[in-house]
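tool_call predict_complex ligand=2-OXO-4-methylpentanoic acid
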Amino acid sequence: MNDLMTQTKINIIPNENSRLHEVDFNNLMFGKKFSDHMFVMEFENGTWKEPAIKPFGPIQITPALNTLHYGQAVFEGMKAFYKDDETINIYRPKDHFERMNFSSRRMGIPETSYEIFITALEELLKLDNKFVPRLEQSALYIRPFIFASDDLLAARSSSKFSYYIITSPVGAYYDEGFNPVSLTTTKEYVRAVVGGTGEVKTAGNYAASFLPAKKAKEDGYTQVLWLDAKEHKYIEEVGTMNIHFLIGDTLVTPKLTGSILGGITRRSVLTLAEEWGYKVEERRITIDEVFEASDNGTLKEVFGSGTAAVISPVGLIHHEGKKINIGIGSIGDFAKRLYDEITGIQYGTIEDRHNWIHSVKV
Ligand code: COI
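tool_result ok
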C-alpha cells in the first residue's frame, strides 16, 4: 500500500489556542463545532505526500479550483466514541476506509492507504480526545474528504487532490432526536440512476437532494424517501440514511442495485438481525408493498440506519396523497434493540464480537 505514498510519517503541528471551551456539550448541533486539529495530505505528480496534522482552520483555495466547478470530491462519515478516560472507540474504520476508496475509484480520485488513514485518526484522537463527548447519544463525528485541487477550468479529471480529515462533536442528527421521523416520496425528482454515482459518497449526490428535501420539509416531512429513477416504484434510501422494513418477522432491506449507498450501519443491522434469528431479505421492495403491509397489519416497524442517524425510527410515510402511520409514536422494540446493541458496542459496554471496534489509547 505504501506505493500510494512517498512518505508515511505525519508531521504534527499542535494547536496553541484550544477552542474546547466554545463547545457546549449539552447542546450539540450536528457538525457545527470542530476539534482543534485536522489532517491534511496532498496528491501531486502521481503520489500522495506531506501528510500533516495542523490546527483546524480556514484553507486557501483558488476560485478556479476544479471541485468548485465540477464537484470531483468524495467523503466519508464515521464516528468515535468515549469508552473511558484512556480509550476512544472508532467504529468500523476499515469499512469506511474501503468505501472511501470505492468512491474514489468511481470519481477518478487516487486511492489512499489504510496505514495513513488509521494513523491519522489515532493521532487526531490523541490530540483532540477532550472533544469526544461523554454524553449519551453523542459522539465525535469524523469527516474524511478528498477533493480535486487543480486550478484549471477544463472539464477533466484533476491531477492534484487534497485530502482532509476533520472531526466534530455531535449529538442526534435529526431534530426529532429519538422520536420517529416522517418521510415522503416524490415523483418530481430522482436521487440516482444505476451507473451514476448514487452508490458512492460524492458531494453532488447530496447537493442534488437539497431542493427536494427543502420541499419535503415545507410540506411537513423530515426527509424524502427516494424511489428508483426508472419506474418510481422501488424503495431505495433516504439520502441521509438507508431504510429497513420489519414485515411480520422478516427484515426487508432494499438491495444494493447500484444506485443506493452501501451503508456501514446498514451492514451491522443485517448482521445482527440474522444473528437474532430474524429472516433477513435484501431485495427490491415496492412502495405499494409497504402500504399493503400497513393495510393488512403486517408492517411492524420502519427505521433508517446510518452513521449520523444511527437507528432512526420512521413514524409516517406519505406517497401520492396517501399516508401510513407506523408504530405508536415512539421507537419500535426491534429498532430499539438494534440501537442499544450497536451503541453498546460503540461505547464499549457490549462485547465487540464482530471486531467492529478499533480502540485508541489516548
Ligand atoms: C453519515 O451518515 O455519516 C452521512 O454521511 C450522512 C450525512 C449526509 C450527514
